[in-house]
Amino acid sequence: MNVKARDSSALGRFWAEALGWGVFSEGPAVTGVGPVGSVWPDCLAVCVVAVPDPETVRYRVHLDLATASAAHQAELVARLKELGATPADVGQGEVPWTVMADPEGNVFCVLEPREVYRDTGPIAAVVVACADPRAMARFWAEAVDWTLHEITDDYARLRSAEGVGPYLEFVRTTPGATPVWTRVHLDVLPRPGDDQAAEAARLRALGATPADVGQGEVSWIVLADPEGNEFCVLAPA
């Protein structure tokens, strides 16, 4: 997952502390955060990338964090506030989860205990707001070769075929909902030894389209999913 920041090092350290993960790479423009000891392809990494100014693009992706009990939820919220997170109001009303923003304003949720997320690790799910969860789930299930666990007109849930790590969820956008501006998108990392251009071609055949976000000459390929959400196909590790 790719998160934009004015200060990639500081925000990377926030997410490492928040998730109890380690910083596996740190440079002048990119800080990588991931589970300590995890091996591709069974982990989700957070890459925090420096940008000079807030973007004006509306990304519709956020993280949900898992908790094991009501006490754990309260403790996690308090610890996140100490790290620099703040309460956020996105029009959620009275809900059992807590909506927060990281130090650069990216919204995320600290969920109440839910049995389905008991073994996901600190991130319960990467959540994508969309118009058609069924179509998005079909595309992304093929794109990342994950297993579809649940699908309705309003909601869909995928998870790694290995049955580990967070879920990828698609939630139908409520008409008239207050827009939430964040700087988060998904990245796709081909398996070691795979061809990046061939992977991008496969994704285009599934319904992705080329996208220009002013990236210029870069080592990754920028595409958009069927609802126009940009994502990057990275060079294989």
TrEMBL record:
It comes from the Bacteria. Residues 122-236 form the VOC domain. Pfam families: Glyoxalase_6 (PF18029). CDD domains: VOC. InterPro entries: Glyas_Bleomycin-R_OHBP_Dase, Glyoxalase_6, VOC_core. This is VOC family protein. It comes from Microbispora maris.
